[in-house]
Amino acid sequence: MTLTDHNPYRMRFTPSTPLPDDELYERPGGGRLWLDALAPRTRSGTKGPFGRARAYARTAPVTHLVLEPGTIRCWINDNTGPASASRAYVPQPHPTIHIPVLDHGQWHDLTVITRHLTDRLARLPAEEVLQEITSTGARNGIHLLPTLDQCHTSCSCSSRSALCKHAATALLQVARYLDTMPLVLLLLRGRSPVDFFAGLQDPDHPSLKNSHTPRHLPSPPATPAQTAHDQWERVAQPSLPPVPALPERPTTPVLAVVDGFDGRTLADLTAEAAQRAYALLSALIHPGTDAAHTAGNLAEAERSGASPTSRQLPTIPLQQRLRELQEATGLTKAELAQAVRDWGLGG
């Protein structure tokens, strides 16, 4: 999990690994509290509303999850298969879940009835802090944890069910983050954790006044994905940089004498390699020129035997080759034969 955007009134997560097995939500924590409130466990063992969605949610390619006061937004990239030949836009699931936030009076009352726990909360881990706040509020009729009936879902998929697998995946992802950052629940229900705990310590904190409204980041202008895709296709592509000029046509090089090689053959091979490179470069820079004709001439020369690559080397008798190897290496005939055998065995 990566927290890519964090401010007091919006949290944007980028999941990095698939959802773990159900054991994650069996231990006490924010995720377990969240799921128990949405779908209380029954003695009959039925899987509840998340039963069929768990298998999909465990491996769903969630790219982003954004939590704001009263809103959960999730982006899922289901297009994980090979790219299609057509460039037609394929809409991806984008579930959005709206949850009612607590009003100012409820937040004020929750702050007042929790203030006497300030010293105790300071010594507890975050998951126990959340449990103390939710249980204290529930005893006084203020429920921080929403029920499934309070979650109003919408999704761009074709499912007609009240809770599609994509929306269920978003709710399960929230449970995952509540296990690691339990106090995100306060933000989701309308109050930044920073403002809530500041109100516990300061009865005159601005968040406790009726005029206080949480700040929201400005949202970008809404543009349908299909419109954005069409606009992208109509935009002219940037021009390529200017093509460099061709160098001069290569000539037959003059090479130094190399022992053991025929000078004329080596020069012909070098010249032909330069001609081939020049023909390929010319075809890339100036399509439609005589590059194809040049390449065809080179291929014809190779087939006819005029090319140095197809020219047969003079036959050297075996005894002469062995004698030259002995002179070059300083080995006797027996030592050379042993070296050949060792080389054949990989020694």
Automatic annotation (TrEMBL):
Positions of the UniProt region annotated as Disordered:
205-232
* One Gene Ontology MF term: zinc ion binding
Q: Which UniProt keywords apply?
A: Metal-binding, Zinc, Zinc-finger
Which InterPro entries did the record assign? Answer: Znf_SWIM
- Residues forming the SWIM-type domain are 140-175
Q: Does the keyword Metal-binding apply?
A: yes
The record, for Pfam families, names: SWIM
In Swiss-Prot or TrEMBL terms, this protein is called SWIM-type domain-containing protein
What is the native source organism of this protein?
Streptomyces nanshensis
